[in-house]
Structures are given as C-alpha cells and as structure tokens.
Amino acid sequence: MSKYALLIEYNGAKFHGWQTQSDVDTVQDRLEFALSSFANHSVATITAGRTDTGVHALNQVIHFSSDEKRNLNGWVVGVNSKLPATIRVKKAVEVTEDFDARFSALNRTYHYYLMINPVNSALFHEQLAWYYQPLDVNLMQQAANMLIGLHDFSSFRAAGCQANSPIRELSILDIEQHGKIIRFKLTANAFLHHMVRNIVGALVYVGCGRMTLEQFYEVFQAKNRKLAPPTFMPNGLYLAHVKYPQDIFATQADDSWLFSF
Asked: What is the pTM of this model?
C-alpha cells in the first residue's frame, strides 16, 4: 500500500461541511466516492481540518492509502474527472507512512473575507461575507492583537464544541483592507469549533463602534460564550494553508482575485 496526500480546493456553499453525515451531501463523501471509483477499491480519507457547512477551502490537505499503481498526475486528473465542479484536486504527492494530514500539522491558517458595501453582492454572496457600512480596520487590529498568544478562547468557541480544552495558541491575526474587501488572516496550532467566525463577529462589533476595546477585552477574559457577539456567517471563511514539518506542498493561498472588487 502506498500513502498519498492531496491538496484540495472546494466551494463549500452547497455542502453540509467536510465530514460524512447521514442523508446530507458532504465534501468527504464526494471525494471518497471519486477516489474509490478511480482506485477500484474503497478509499477512506483523513483531513487536516473538518470545515463546517458553507465553509470553503483554498488549500485543504487529506491523506489516503491505496495499492492501485497510478502516477501522481493520474490521481489529480482521474479523480477530478469524477468530482463535481465545486471540488478540485490541485496536487498529489506520495508521503511516508508516518504522515498524518491531521496530526502531523504544525498549524492551520484560515482567511475570512468580508465585503464592505451598502448592498450585498448577488454574484458572490456565497463566497464572501458582507457588512453594510465601513469598519475601522485599525481599531479592529488593536483588538485582534489582544488575542495573540496562548490563551483560553472559551468566549469564542461554539456552545457545542467538543474539544477537550479551550486553550489554543494564536500566532497570527492580521486584518487588511483592499478596496471593498477586508481579509482576516488567522494562524493557530488548532482551532475550536466556530472560533474564527466568533472572533470575526466580535471584531466587527469593535469596528462598527458597538463594542469598545475595553469591552472586547472584558468579553475575552470572561471566558463565557454567552457574553460575546453572535457567530458571524460562514460564507467568507476559507481554510487557506496547513503547515507541516516536511514541505509536502510548497504553496500559499493565492487570494489576489478576491481583492479585485
């Protein structure tokens, strides 16, 4: 058996997240069906990050094993031929037996894209989040800087989060605006359920003046989800990059097209 890793992108708008569930359409189901069909045997996948309903991926990573002898480009072209247009394998590499897409990851980077415009986009409403008025990016960055480091993120975890610990190390939280698009870039060793969307929701409250920096810090320190602003929409959230000890995919998220608005 050989072990492979795939680099994948997908538009998650029409899927009920990554993970297989009964009676709903998921990215994992579609990918495993395509892999199994191409490999002529049942294929199970392990992923770097289990994205939620409506969440997208620029560079998701999965691994699987197969005894079917195919060249690497064959895995890309052959599997893509059996996938819907909203899921694409970008690259395939053979990896060592000890590689694990989930547990070998050093950190994960998510991007959240927020369109600032009086009217929401009809064409891109599933790919971008939206807010109707300007936000103070500098003020949001000041709030974001409070979250850098090893902290208890209980105020920003979903009520049903099943993680054993709310402690996470957030190493990057950068906010920048290009035209109508604000990008939030977050890198951490791991993320709690809805952590990015909850953080963005709180930062938007700061940016529009509904919450002061002092109030933001108090909410963060309270470690109480009930005191924080609502979870923001999934549309603008993308798994952008997964870092491993070995550089199996020498790539970063290319999001320049999103800044053309």
From this structure: 0.94
Is 252 part of any domain? no
The verdict on residue 249 lying in a domain is: no
107: left (phi over 0), alpha (psi -120 to 50) or beta: beta
114 and 88 in a single domain? The answer is no
Structure tokens at 3: 């072990």
pLDDT at position 260 is 56
**Residue 224, Cβ density class (10 Å: 0-12 exposed, 13-18 middle, ≥19 buried):** exposed
CATH number for the domain that contains residue 45? 3.30.70.580
Helix 213-222 to helix 137-145 angle, to the nearest 10 degrees? 30
Which domain covers residue 194, as residue numbers?
Answer: 107-241
N-terminal to C-terminal alpha carbon distance within the chain: 47
CA distance 80 to 52: 22
Lowest-confidence region among 102-116, 134-148, 236-250: 236-250
**What residues contact residue 133 under an 8 Å CB cut-off, 6+ apart?**
116, 118, 208
**Which residues are identified as catalytic?**
52
